[in-house]
Sequence to fold (220 residues):
Amino acid sequence: MTMPQLKAPKNMKLTLLAPLAVLALGACATPFRADVQRFQALPVPQGQSFAVVSSDPELAGGLEFGQYADMVEAQMVNFGYTLSEDPAAAELIVSMDYDIDDGREKVVTDYDPFYRPGFYGRGYYSRYRYLHGYYDPFLFGGYGFNGYGGVRSFTVYTAQLDMKIDRAVDGERLFEGTAEAKSRSKNLTYLVPNLVEAMFTNFPGNSGERVRISVAPEKN
Fold:
């Protein structure tokens, strides 16, 4: 005897697909954002030699600083400058410094992204608005919290990268730049490389302009 095959109702398929769509949105990585301001009077790159040094004597010669200096050197070479192994022989001196503050507490109120009184309760219409981008449940803590007026706090840190370029022969300042980002992470090995990339996005930039730079997240 052949058993009849049962077909799932259409509304059941939608119900099963909705959580998958939510998970797909949750898996999307957030880009790194930094505020960058630059002042510059750099001549057109024509292979001028440069060397990267630390503005902070405590960082000079350190392995961690050396790792970030390598990133700056790669960016400078990519823009048409030539790395000098001897800072005393370089035409341009690139000095940089980085730091992160002690952080400050931020207080937020949780909410339920699917609960909207007056919008058909917690039904399909509310979920439809969420799935089409009206509400972002990941903004203040991610999907899954109930959000009925709960208050919580977390620490926000501010990381900053400062970079200057001087002409070696007379010390004339040719470039000043600052890249700053707020983050819940205080891991410099994550923050500084992103700040370096933000600093060199559309380098050297328009003098005096402050811009928001978004750096794409790393691929898994």
Summary: The chain has a mean pLDDT of 75. The longest strand covers residues 148-167. The beta strands are 32-40, 49-54, 82-83, 92-100, 104-111, 148-167, 173-183, 209-215.
